[in-house]
Specification:
The protein has 357 residues and is an alpha/beta fold. It folds into two domains: 178 residues, 3-Layer(aba) Sandwich (Rossmann fold); 171 residues, no CATH class. Helix content is 27%, strand content 26%. The strands form three sheets. It has a six-stranded parallel β-sheet, sandwiched between helices. The protein has a six-stranded mixed β-sheet with strand order 7-10-11-6-12-13, with helices on one face. A two-stranded antiparallel ribbon has the order 8-9. Helix 1 packs across helix 9 and helix 4 runs parallel beside helix 5. The radius of gyration is 20 Å and the shape is globular. It starts with a strand and ends with a helix. It comes from Rhodococcus daqingensis.
Length: 357
């Protein structure tokens, strides 16, 4: 069993606790939390499992890392505290841990050597002989491996279009939804997530990864942006009121340009009210979000993924990619890994194995 800790218990961390608990090769050894009110709570409670796991949350990272965990699922947000995230991950790497995380967006493509933050991370890997695999912000496995797998089903590829369509109205992340993304804020408020070049910082790594896998050279990466105001105020159960006139819908693209044309495109369509921007693509009725992948070439291949999880629960579909990589990484040399390095693996299914005996 691989001793594993989950660091952070937000939406992604809760899903990570469930995934580690379900994996037959992993042992949930500890949970690290930032909120003092969560210290001492059982991991099963924090993960929403409805049962206790006998693991109490700690707020002391140094003490937990001193126990020598083999792996760390780093689930704390990197949206507004990137320097702290790098410091945390370096501490885990120096302790010799395998670290899997979605929290350092610029390192989705770690071969992009323009990122200065690589230097301390590579030093920590060399010192502690740990490993780092960065992937899967949101459910963005649909922005890297799935399009590449679909591309292999046809004789040629002219264009890849990845699309995420999300209704935020059921989310419980007011700081991120209001101030990071800008929902409900005046249209003259430039939210950090849509500031110039920020979408490329977050999603450009996936565009570069796909280009590298396809063997094409990008001319550049471009961005497009559209915003729509709320026509009427809306009240959400989890985040309160969003006033009329504030941003109600947001649509942007990160485009990989090849031969002067957008050939690898990641698009996001986000709303705080399903009625806002009705002419834009929407999730299926009754769903909070959907992902679409369209591969165009000699034939068109399309895939639609609709999350059955509650609003904000798309993390359950992406955390499996990271948690499922831990036992593979345990058999590899220490180092820096990306989505093209780590193979896609079937889920561990002990119930099915037992049923087949």
């Amino acid at each position: 069993m691989i001793s594993t800790i989950v660091w952070g218990t937000g939406n992604f961390g809760r899903a990570a606790i469930c995934a580690v608990d379900a994996h037959p090769g992993l042992d949930l050894a500890a949970v690290l939390v930032h909120d003092p009110g969560k210290v001492g709570r059982d991991a099963g409670d924090l993960g929403g499992l409805g049962r206790e796991l006998g693991v109490r949350a700690s707020g002391d990272a140094a003490v937990v890392l001193a126990t020598g965990p083999r792996a760390v699922v780093y689930a704390a947000s990197g949206d507004v505290r990137s320097a702290d995230v790098v410091a945390d991950i370096c501490a885990a790497l120096r302790a010799g841990a395998i670290v899997v995380t979605p929290s350092i967006y610029p390192l989705y493509d770690h071969r992009d050597d323009r990122q200065d933050l690589q230097e301390p991370i590579r030093a920590a890997i060399a010192e502690g002989r740990g490993s780092l695999f960065v992937s899967c912000v949101d459910p963005d496995w649909t922005d890297e491996m799935v399009p590449l797998l679909l591309s292999g089903l046809g004789p040629g590829v002219d264009r890849i279009h990845c699309q995420e369509i999300v209704d935020y109205s059921g989310y419980d992340q007011p700081d991120s939804v209001r101030y990071l993304v800008g929902m409900g804020e005046p249209l003259d408020y430039l939210a950090p997530m849509i500031a110039p070049r920020m979408p490329t910082t977050v999603w450009g790594g996936q565009v570069r990864l796909m280009a590298r896998a396809l063997g094409v050279e990008l001319d550049e990466i471009r961005e497009t942006l559209e915003r729509r105001p709320l026509e009427a105020s809306v009240e959400t159960d989890t985040m309160g009121k969003f006033d009329a006139g504030g941003q109600g819908a947001l649509r942007f693209e990160v485009q990989g340009i090849v031969g002067g044309e957008p050939r690898i495109v990641i698009e996001h369509v986000n709303r705080i009210d399903p009625a806002c921007a009705p002419d834009w693509p929407s999730p299926p009725e009754g769903q909070s979000g959907t992902q679409r992948v369209i591969v165009e070439g000699d034939r068109q291949i399309a895939m639609i993924v609709v999350g059955a999880a509650p609003a904000g629960g798309d993390e359950a579909m992406s955390v499996g990619r990271l948690v499922g990589a831990i036992d593979w990484l345990a058999g590899q040399a220490p180092g820096f890994y990306d989505a093209l390095d780590v193979p896609l693996r079937p889920a561990a299914a002990p119930e099915l194995a037992a049923a087949s005996v």
